[in-house]
Amino acid sequence: MKKLKDKKIRIVKLQQSKDEDGFPINEWVPIHDGTLWAYYRHLSGKELFASAAMQHDEECLFIINFRNDINTDMEIEYSGKYYDITRIDNFEGYKSDLSLYAKLSKTNH
After folding, report:
1. Alpha carbon distance 3, 90 (integer Å)
2. pLDDT tens for residues 21-72?
3. 80-102: string of b/e by CB count within 10 Å (b at 16+)?
4. Contact 61/100 with Cβ under 8 angstroms?
5. Which of 39, 75, 89, 106 could form a disulfide with 63 if both were Cys (CB 3.0 to 4.6 A apart)?
6. pLDDT tens readout for residues 82-98
7. Which helix (H) or strand (E) holds 99?
8. 24 Cα distance to chain centroid
9. What are the angstrom distances between the C-alpha of 56 and each of 53, 61, 67, 100, 102?
């Protein structure tokens, strides 16, 4: 069954730049133009146990169209919250979908 990608997300990475006085600043910038469409759901307790994750963290799954420019140093912005990407699954090397496992970020944006 095809999963409906009906949620808008942004994938952001931490980039260091300089302010007008030349001091370094860190900012989260999107790696793409506009927004990406994604399938989204919370992981069940069984899936959390299988991945040896902590039960108190908000863990979820985002499925997007295949991209090869995403890594676990990046974050997903969805519905006003940021999620740390913890694992990337390209489903046996097929280049159709990309599953991004993520947990609610503890950093302040």
Report:
1. 15
2. 999 999 999 999 988 999 999 997 654 455 554 445 679 999 999 999 999 9
3. eebbbbeeeeeeeeeeebbebbb
4. yes
5. 39
6. 999 999 998 777 788 99
7. strand 97-104
8. 25
9. 9, 16, 30, 19, 13
Cα–Cα dist 74/13, whole Å: 5
Distance, in Å, from the CA atom of 31 to the CA atom of 65, rounded to the nearest integer, reads 14
The distance of Cα 30 from the centroid of its chain, to the nearest Å, equals: 11
pTM above 0.90, yes or no: no
Asked if the model's pLDDT at residue 76 lies above 70, the reply is yes
Q: End-to-end distance of the chain based on CA atoms, in angstroms? A: 36
Q: Which of 97, 35, 12 is nearest to 61 (CA)?
A: 97
Residue entry with tokens 């469409």: 37
CA dihedral of residues 69, 80, 89, 38 (deg, nearest 10): -90
